[in-house]
Amino acid sequence: MDLADRLEIGLTRTEALHVLYQAALGLRALHAAGVVHRDLKPANVLLTANGEVKLVDLGIALEREQSALTKTGEVLGTPDYMAPEVARGKRPTPAADVYALAATAYRLFAGRPLFELPSPIAVVHAHVKDTPPSFEDLDPPVSPGLARILDRCLAKDPAQRPDLDALLDALEPMHPTISREPHAPRTDRRVDRQPTFDRGERFHHFVLLGELGRGATSIVYEAYHLDRQERVALKTLHPERMDERGRARFLHEVSALRTARHPNTVELLEYGLHEGIHFLALELVDGKPLSRWIAETDRPLAERLEPLLLLCSAVEAAHREGWCTATSSPRTCW
User: Fold this and answer.
1) What is the mean pLDDT of each run of 10 residues along the chain (334 residues)?
2) Which of 177, 181, 304, 321 could form a disulfide with 260 if both were Cys (CB 3.0 to 4.6 A apart)?
3) Is there a catalytic annotation at residue 192?
4) 3-state secondary structure the chain
């Protein structure tokens, strides 16, 4: 999944810092090899299943000593992340990638591009002429040191932008797992084995209390959330569905739960990626599936209609947000 798609679902601030740090490392490696990316943007940042970040689409990348492949005045790149000098038709340098990375960082932290304007031409003009919003004004804020570095990365003059080492230095204190040393290949058992858990086992900040059920794409556990200090339903991607299609479907569910909030829809408490395993935490519903409720007693019609009306209300809310509840059934309603 690329970062553009992931942004549609949403990232925590910690996840955003992690993505920014790894993207900066990858970009620094390109620059050390004498290569300028020239089109850094969320769609060209891939997020792997084990949480790694990969820069892709180097189709218009340029070696520093390579002659330009474009005609005079031709501009390559994406308006939302285009450095001012590139917009003017100047030859891209590593500083242009630094600007694009800072513009991507703003999209990560603010949830919107630097300039929200009605046309690509207007956006390009804004990159050249207008003062960008400051990282110091973000809500919630980033650290003052990181905000100052990122603001400098958006300088109109490429000579005034800091190098990636300065940005990496500012990012390191933001995340306890960040290290400037290259990481060894992951050997975590969660990646090598089927990610199923036993009662009492710890996963992230959850203690597993037992398995509740399995579906085509996921396994659901009852778990105790150590931070929230409450029981939750912990849903993890099924070990046999860890391909790209399975991950996309799992994250699609996350997106639906985030947008289609309703009193009769289970509440999404948390979602993320830990040790290579996609998970989401839901409110734990103490009750029974509608299928069992129907089968247990011969209820009068008026009593049977009540859950149907509540279900209709929840489905209507999902439809208003553009979601189709394709798997609604008495078994999936509690």
Assistant:
1) 78 87 91 86 82 72 41 58 92 94 95 92 94 93 92 97 93 60 35 58 87 77 87 81 70 71 74 82 73 66 70 68 58 58
2) 321
3) no
4) CEHHHHHHHCCCHHHHHHHHHHHHHHHHHHHHCCEECCCCCHHHEEECCCCCEEECCCCCCEECCCCCCCCCCCCCCCHHHCCHHHHCCCCCCHHHHHHHHHHHHHHHHHCCCCCCCCCHHHHHHHHHHCCCCCHHHCCCCCCHHHHHHHHHHCCCCHHHCCCHHHHHHHHHHHCCCCCCCCCCCCCCHHHHCCCCCCCCCEECCEEEEEEEEECCCEEEEEEEECCCCEEEEEEEECHHHCCHHHHHHHHHHHHHHHHCCCCCCCCEEEEEEECCEEEEEEECCCCCCHHHHHHHCCCCHHHHHHHHHHHHHHHHHHHHCCCCCCCCCCCCCC
